[in-house]
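Teaching assistant here, posting this on the class forum so everyone can see the example we discussed in section. The complex has two components, and the goal was to see what a joint structure prediction looks like when all of them are supplied at once.
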Amino acid sequence: MSSGTAATREPGSATVRSAAIAWRLATVVDVVTETPRARTLVLDVPGWPGHRAGQHVDVRLTAEDGYQAERSYSIASAPEDARIALTVQRLDDGEVSPYLSDVLRGGDRLELRGPIGGYFVWGVALGGPLFLVAGGSGIVPLMAMLRHRAAALTANGDARHGVPARLLYSSRRWEDVFYRAELARLAEDDGTLEVALALTHEAPPGWTGFRRLIDGRMLAEVAWPPAERPKVFVCGPTPLVEAVATALVELGHDPALVKTERFGPTGGSRSAA
Amino acid sequence: MTVGEHREAVMDGEARRAPEKGVDDERAGEVLRLDGNAAAGILSEVFVPDLTTALATCAHCGTIRAIGALLVYAHGMGMVMRCPNCDAVVLRVARPRTQLWVDLTGAKLVVMAGVGASSVA
């Protein structure tokens, strides 16, 4: 940890950091249960400079003896929102996620810095068609993109109809699907958004969606043809991301248009730790 | 942390464990391989413009990729970033104690485009 507690000040006061991205003190204003293992923390971050859909923040927790742990979490909220939302999935043997997903409550504060990362980002100005592939909590940065796209419609009339979007989202079980109601509503309200769900472990009776891991056949069925040059964002556990990216390139998609965000179980992880 | 009267984001001692391991079968066999984007935070401690959108030329094979598209292997001390084409080390960042190490010998050239006030979030 390069700066330790010396860099932590109330927002707005002087800081010893010389880099552009400073640690800030965020306040939890709301906590929303998404699934049995995931909660969304809605944060008020004074001085927040705004973000682009797909970016993340680093969260830092400090123990009383000074030990610190840092994890990265994707931002779930649209850039248009005044507050930022992080959806955190609990890893039972994690050292950060159980605190964020179980212990934190309204009024609590935590340190974060961001927004971080300009590579895995999308905005309506970048155009489409937009093809999003998520595994598990990999939906989080992609949800920010869909929320941004929906907000752009509200702001600009039919702007999003210039950017058709498809989401292919794999979860283990129905109850593990993040943002279920909102995704259904978004797809219902918008004829240019299609949402396809895949359940890998267990499906409710009458399930008509995919019932297996994402594979090349499924991608060929759901994705736009490579000739339409969709902008592709893939986020999820490393094995899923690599399998999907490989399959897409085999189907003929331009690797330069396939952006990936793997998340793993350690300090650099996204949404999963 | 000096956060006044509010409850602080403090972990209790027993929550402190070795690096987190995957906990379900979806994650079994997972390697600690991430994207360059995952290194954006630590890189921001050294470079003011966002380095993940910069193009790096691999000193070993000459492949040019956005740093956000390199393969990142995270470990306790920092990150090793490898070329997706030849697997050579392009960039290493480590944070031993209060130091920050950056090894760029594997990058022949790093090009940042659009560097100006608007590129700094």
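For the discussion questions: Chain B touches chain A through 58 residues (CB under 8 Å). Residues 40-43 of chain B form the longest helix (4 residues). Think about how each of these relates to the inputs above.
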